[in-house]
Design brief:
The protein is built from two helices and ten strands. The longest helix is centred in the N-terminal third of the chain and has 11 residues.
Length: 177
Amino acid sequence: MLNRVLTWAAGLGFTVWIFYALMASSEQAGSVIVRTDSDADDRALAERTFSGKQGIYGVIRVAPELVATAPKAGKVFVRLVNAALASGTTVALKAFPAKAEGPMLFHIGPADVKEPGALQHELDVSAHWSQNGDPTMDVKGDLKGKCAQNPVRPGERLAIVVLGQQVDPSSRPTSPY
């Protein structure tokens, strides 16, 4: 299996250093971690991995300056919020295994949202690397980030999120995002 994956990735022109595939369910990949040579490689990998799937997909990366201090365990929660509503209504919150070794790919499809049709709205995409596995409670050292392209519009399905904020709950009130 690993040889087939490495051959596939090499055929796409990627330099693959590390590969992990973790299944979240029988229907969809949980997280794929690959170290590639450029942002363009990351985008191309996400597009090829989730080609033909409905929903929003993308890449989560730890900011280069935080890689050395990134948590060693936990989960990354990707949160989609309806950008048109001032209340910041969460339409989807999905957990993925966290790894600092390379970009993490994610996919949130129609089955993952709270209301049918929620993916047809402009959405703000954010991510929270939670060491304790609880997206509502900050722990010192957790990482957070938002998609620079927010809001992501219907049809613009690719979101890039950089985890560039390290949480220090002692310096501010605890909040989910």
